[in-house]
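Task: fold both queries, return tokens.
Query 1:
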Amino acid sequence: MGKDIDEAASGFGNVFRDRLTYLMNGNNVYGKPVNTQELADEIDISRPAVRKYIKPNDRREVTVPSALVVSRIARFFHTTPNFLLGFDTEIGTAFEVKLADTSCINCGQCIVACPVGALYERDDTDKVFEALADPKKHVLICAAPSVRAQIGECFGYEPGTDVEGKMVAAIKALGFEGVYDMNMTADLTIIEEATELIGRIQKGGALPLITSCSPGWIKYCEHYFPDMTENLSTCKSPQQMFGAVVKTFFAEKMGWDPQDIFFVSAIPCTAKKFEVGRDDQSAAGNGIPDVDVAITTRELGRMIQKAGIDFRSLDDEHFDAPFAIGSGAGAIFGATGGVMEAALRYAAELILGTKLESVDFPEVRGTEGIKLASYKLGDLTVNVGVASSTGKAKELLNRVKSGELDLQFIEIMGCPGGCVNGGGQPIQPAHVRATIDLRAVRAAVLYNDDRNDDLRKSQDNSAVKMLYDEFFGYPNSEKAHHILHTSYVKRGL
């Protein structure tokens, strides 16, 4: 029995050796040989370890790598673990349908849950490095609020450590021409979305209005609740709004051709990769995408490491003008209930016509899967609901459709806990996830930023005011609708 196992292992090792050697000899997507040191650096193991996979040991046997190492090597060479191990079995969708055309919502929670690291996001870092090396391109980037709360985990910081200043410094060290705060367009989203809500309430539009920031939730709705796509806010997500603003307003202001702008978003969400390729996401026209590449928190961490930047030793730096300003309301977008609370801060003042004495709405905070609240705003009562995860979204929407709940405004996030627990965030080992509520710890960073920020309401953001004064005119204007809003598809199953 033991001999049979040894022979089987040796057989796998020989096949792996032959196919790895084949790839390293230049038969790969890069079209050039890769030496043992280069491969070791790319997959974060030692050079001697790599040599054991391609050269026999003293007993003339080839070492069989772990599943994690096989996955890393496959990812680097843009192939599959099955190819490396000599399996003829191909893993894919039924009838070889493109993943984007299935009912998968691209949320990436399977990646976070996979115990052996066999699942991973499409790596787009090479595209970004190529753009950075192109002297003809203006390469710009914006970072989502939750990235600064989690990227430190890629460099040994404890979960719940805010490393915004070092993150900005590291991104600038990579060579980006402009490094911006996505909190700015989170504020812009709030102005557009809350105005849309009030308009629907006053003019009889489709209610409840449902938020549109989470692309995983959007695709879930298109597949599983196509009859409720009319309830979705038409606002683009903050990611897409930023790209749209950069390639219209900012390009015009700088005298740049939008085609010469390469815009990147650093985000906690794998579904954002799908979102950049959606229809109706080209405000600059001519097939120019609002966002060229979306990279996850993990990808950004790998870029910084690959560039040899000592993250922990960096001095703090700040986001670049004119998009360096974001409110506390924009910051809490990354936590479940944050979009709702930010919208209420604006809508309440707009409806009441007075400044709020307190901007805190604690009823919609917390990591519970469903939260319900009711607010009396003058003569108007607004009933709201918050759901995080598609399972809780399904439960909440079915209660609305059955008539059990009468809601005017709903926030839904595809991932449990919101963006702080997105599929693109750093993966913590099981013993950490079992002992720490990562959702709460990570969200605490954002709420702390909000609490300590002098600017806590989206409507007070001077950068957003500038955009309306100089470009859009007013919220939900015709120009704003053309650039900042989008449409949806009733996909069904």
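Query 1 returned. Query 2:
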Amino acid sequence: MTRGHSLPEHTMTMKQFLNYINGEFVATAKTFENRNPATNDVIGLVHEAGRAEVDQAVAAGRAALKGEWGKMSVVRRAELLHAVADEINRRFDDFLEAELADTGKPRSLASHIDIPRGAANFKIFADIVKNVPTESFQMSTPDGGTAISYGVRTPLGVVGVICPWNLPLLLMTWKVGPALACGNTVIVKPSEETPATATLLGEVMDKVGIPKGVYQVLHGFGPGSAGEFITQHPGINGITFTGETRTGEAIMAAAAKGVRPVSFELGGKNAGIVFADADFDKAIAGITRSAFENCGQVCLGTERVYVQRPIFDQFVAALKEKAEGLKIGGPDTPGVGLGPLISAEHKAKVLGYYAKARAEGATIVTGGGVPTMEGEYANGHFVQPTIWTGLPESASVIREEIFGPCCHIAPFDTEEEAIALANATDYGLATTVWTQDLGKAHRVAAAIEVGLCWINSWFLRDLRTAFGGAKASGIGREGGVHSLEFYTELRNVMVKL
């Protein structure tokens, strides 16, 4: 291992994404490229952590639990987390540029969602932890005396945070915020595709005085790299992960050794249900967002759309018009509505599904290919927003998560049929339902097997509420007081008077 100031001379001209261990930025001998998905240009070199770095980070995290951080009052801890949020906002432009370079998403999207929510996650969980009570009971004892029992929440310990690439800062702080608010230390493994904002957050932690070892970042991949080494390490007390279901299964198997808890938000194949009585214009606007926002790279996005038959043809035509009206380009393309996919590998995956849809006999309403891009975006990872109809429910693009700007639209006749279609999947993350019939809205919401059901909306969140998936879409709930169930151990203290 070499420190940042000892980097070989030939690498100094490139941006370096270093690991952040025990309050120091740490270089390693093994690096890999970080590329801008909009241009395919190399942004810089990412320093891959190995077992030695993981050992060091775990040791530092455990030491912090026994040191200043572990002894710190809840009030002081909350003050520091508010300071973290304030510093993110002070350096808003730095975080924004880092996020744009990593993801290529439209500037308007990242500036209104990713960075503000990334900061807010620290404040809201700090305030929740300050104000959440525990239970207390008084009882009579067999000898005629009295006993009092009360609950005490203690930190889980060193928490491994394995993050996705689609909303890097937002989804990372969604986990780091409550973990730190509860008094844990964290080791963050950002996606190898998006290392920038997690690294930058290390500078913020140092600036506001978060003790060493509390927040740490290790870069790398999954199997045979930092991700696997973190999840297998016996000094990791729990693992929280957002990403693909198959990766979640591998992490769960690793966590079984030592019986360590996990919190998972995994894949989805989310349904959108549009009833004939819906506000048509609002439904079209909502499904356009849920199918195509962030180039479809949203775990809560809609890839299956079911539209009641009387408005089916009208809906397909209107969504086609909206999709074709999305301007494709880089973060600062004027009027951009659709950015790139995250990588060449993911582009190949999405185009593979586009080919499968054609092979399986889909009617291609629009898209299905690659747009012609010019100038600096000529080599970017762009695909066309795509709509299909006409496929059976057994088709690959209806059964499997694609994570691209695409959806299949199918008609239905009855409420019961819509519910059955929505539930006919191994996944159960989210759904969005469009109707002006209040009774129907509540019935459908109760019947669909998901963790989150939106009525006449999409991507609307109250951070105090429970968030998570059902079936193959995850384990556990985070958000508000529900995050405490994972990030703390509830200890009962019994006192005989």
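Both queries returned. Flag for query 2: Residues 107-131 form the longest helix (25 residues).
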